[in-house]
Amino acid sequence: SVIWVDAHADINTPLTSPTGNIHGQSMSYVLRELQSKIPVLPNFSWIRPCVSAKDLVYIGLRDVDPEEHYILKLLGVKVFSMSEVDQLGIARVMEETCDYLFSKVKKPIHLSYDIDAIDPSVTPATGTPVVGGLTYREGVYITEQVCQTGLLSAVDMVEVNPLRGQTEEEVQSTVSTAVDLLCGCFGRLREGNHPSDYRLPEEAEKRSRKQI
């Protein structure tokens, strides 16, 4: 299963892309249903489709080309655009995401997280920022919930670009948010954490420590 958190769908094919930018086509190369729509391109023959449309969920979309919108509808891909996030709330979005992906078989999750899914007021140092994105809290909540499924097998964090920051503050805000998102993937909770083997010290242990 793939959870794709992004402002963009990145599902254009080389034949539908209005810009020709390869970074806006990555999903089309790995979807089985689009295999026949991808022309043979030099240096890309090693890529093998490995994801079915029914195992893909998008969260945070808000900048989708008409051609991409057609593909999403044609393949019946599950999409929670920012309209759905606003309407349902991020907790409901994650609940429905898990229900959808795990309704039949629980498969390992690959979480693909583009930092431009977060609103550029929080993460401005990125190549293609789009206003109206996820809040910091919504973004972290996604990672916490994916981690708690116990099925997260891989995560990628993309489009963090310090060169795009206009000030040091913009760079730090973007980078620190990306780090927090990754920490959420690996189990850090905002309520706090403690080691699994931690136990409260006994009075005798406190006295022995003082003597040492």
Keywords:
35% helix, Ureohydrolase_Mn_BS, globular, five-stranded parallel β-sheet, Arginase, 212 residues, alpha/beta
Describe the structure.
The model has no long low-confidence stretch (mean pLDDT 95). Helices cover 35% and strands 13% of the residues. The protein has seven helices and five strands. The protein has one domain: 3-Layer(aba) Sandwich (Arginase, Chain A). β1, α1 and β2 form a beta-alpha-beta unit. Strands 3-2-1-4-5 form a five-stranded parallel β-sheet. The protein has 212 residues and is of the alpha/beta class.
What is the topology?
Layout (H helix, E strand, L loop, with lengths): L1 E4 L20 H5 L25 E6 L4 H10 L2 E4 H7 L1 H12 L7 E6 L21 H13 L3 E7 L9 H18 L17 H9 L1
Parallel strand pairs: 1-2, 1-4, 2-3, 4-5
Helix pairs in contact: 3-4, 5-6
The biggest sheet amounts to: 5 strands, parallel
Kindly give the count of domains: 1
Low-confidence stretches: none
Structural class: alpha/beta
What fraction, in percent, of the residue positions are helical? 25-40%
CATH fold annotation: Arginase, Chain A
Which range does the strand content fall in? 5-15%
Distance between the termini: 54 Å
Number of helices: 7
- By DSSP, the count of extended strands is 5
What is the average of the pLDDT values? 95
Global morphology: globular
In the sheet with the most strands, the strands line up as 3-2-1-4-5
Summarize the structure.
The protein has 212 residues and is an alpha/beta fold. 35% of the residues lie in helices and 13% in strands.
